[in-house]
Amino acid sequence: MLKIENLSKSYGRGKRKKNVLHDVNLTVGEEEIVGIVGESGSGKSTLSRLIMRLESADEGTVSFATVDNFYASCQIVFQNASAAMNPSWTVRDILKEPLRKMKGDRDAHIREMLEKVSLEEKHLDRRPSELSGGERQRVNLLRSILVEPKLLVCDEIVSNLDRLIQKEIVELIQRLNRETGMAILFISHDLDVVEHLCNRVYVMKSGRIVEEGVKRDGRFSFEHPYSLLLFE
Ligand SMILES: Nc1ncnc2c1ncn2[C@@H]1O[C@H](COP(=O)(O)OP(=O)(O)OP(=O)(O)O)[C@@H](O)[C@H]1O
């Protein structure tokens, strides 16, 4: 459903030009959970911004199959849930915002979807500062899935959470995928989480995809020395 072909991106000009992505190719199939791993600065977030059309590529294409309304079909969740939410808004306001074009009962839709991320109606009247880290990330996640996207890009969404909350969010992602068929592109430098969650993974190094790993018997098998080093 997502196909990225020969994608390249640079920042700056002349002597300051920096090539950040080089000839990146990847796919995410319908209902698939695919990972992207790589060290800090390898270009993962730049790639997610290009997928979301927040920036444009120098070369190459990002295409979605069977998508007529891009913004309703593809959503992103970022790492820092607090920064992504207006601190003076209640959870109800935060969740209503992406539904402003929805016809029908927005409150009823929100109440229905709360259960999908294990939140309760009592959370709706709270402000982000009155939520735990895990609850904040669940609100963040819910905000992105309210429009019922076909693809959800998760950019380091469990990175700053403790292990227990990480586990809870990962289980939630699995459940959403299972129950709604939403495809997930899961960007992370946490290799354990990626190995647990994804069936395929792309390994990025210095703006290039150096290898695609496929799971066998619950583990990824790799050949490229960099991937072997990462997953050792
Ligand atoms: N707007 C920008 N202008 C200039 N350089 C940028 C810009 N955005 C990213 N870069 C550079 O592009 C490279 C890739 O950054 P990116 O944030 O995509 O990496 P990343 O793999 O997501 O890293 P991390 O895991 O630390 O978030 C880095 O060297 C970064 O400094």
TrEMBL record:
GO terms, molecular function: ATP binding; ATP hydrolysis activity
Superkingdom of this protein's organism: Bacteria
SUPFAM superfamilies linked to this entry: P-loop containing nucleoside triphosphate hydrolases (SSF52540)
Domain ABC transporter: 2-231
Keywords: ATP-binding, Nucleotide-binding, Transport
Gene3D superfamilies listed in its UniProt record: P-loop containing nucleotide triphosphate hydrolases
Transmembrane segments: none
GO terms for biological process, alphabetical: transmembrane transport
Any Pfam family matching the protein: ABC_tran
Family the UniProt entry places it in: Belongs to the ABC transporter superfamily.
Name of the protein in question: Dipeptide/oligopeptide/nickel ABC transporter ATP-binding protein
Organism: Sporosarcina thermotolerans
Species classification: Bacteria, Bacillati, Bacillota, Bacilli, Bacillales
